[in-house]
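Section 5: illustrative case.
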């Protein structure tokens, strides 16, 4: 054997004389940020109406619901008085809404499981509102089948 000791060699960076991010990309990112700022400033200064806000309508029907998650896919839907409206082993979209609501409540430190309001409006909208957090979801935006799952809860 030889008396040589092994010393690991650190690999040298390639192209150490050039920048890692191309200047054209940095300029493009800066231009995008400035364009976004200009568009938002224009909208605020000209009092442009909000386009993502659902149209106002009269509430035709409302029902208080308690959504209890039990597992990754299961959900129980109760009326305000505790009557079981649905016990779903595979709740589908109802479970998705329950999980989103539970996540929002966790972020806001809401203890317990207060009821949410399922509201049908005169213009065909269906929304769920959580008075405890101010969170809401427009259920018609997720497709007619998902909206129908909640419409059945209004008539049960």
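Designed sequence:
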């Amino acid at each position: 054997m030889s008396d040589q000791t092994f010393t690991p060699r650190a690999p040298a960076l390639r192209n150490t004389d050039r920048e890692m991010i191309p200047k054209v990309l940095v300029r493009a990112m800066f231009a995008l940020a400035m364009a976004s700022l200009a568009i938002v400033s224009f909208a605020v200064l000209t009092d442009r109406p909000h386009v993502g806000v659902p149209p106002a309508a009269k509430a035709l029907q409302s029902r208080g619901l308690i959504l209890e998650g039990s597992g990754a896919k299961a959900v129980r839907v109760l009326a305000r008085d505790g009557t079981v409206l649905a016990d779903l082993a595979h709740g589908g979209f109802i479970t998705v809404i329950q999980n989103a609501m539970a996540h929002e409540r966790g972020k806001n430190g809401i203890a317990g499981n207060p009821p949410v309001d399922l509201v049908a409006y005169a213009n065909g909208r269906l929304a769920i509102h959580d008075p405890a957090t101010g969170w809401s979801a427009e259920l018609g935006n997720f497709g007619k089948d998902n909206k129908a799952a909640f419409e059945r809860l209004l008539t049960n």
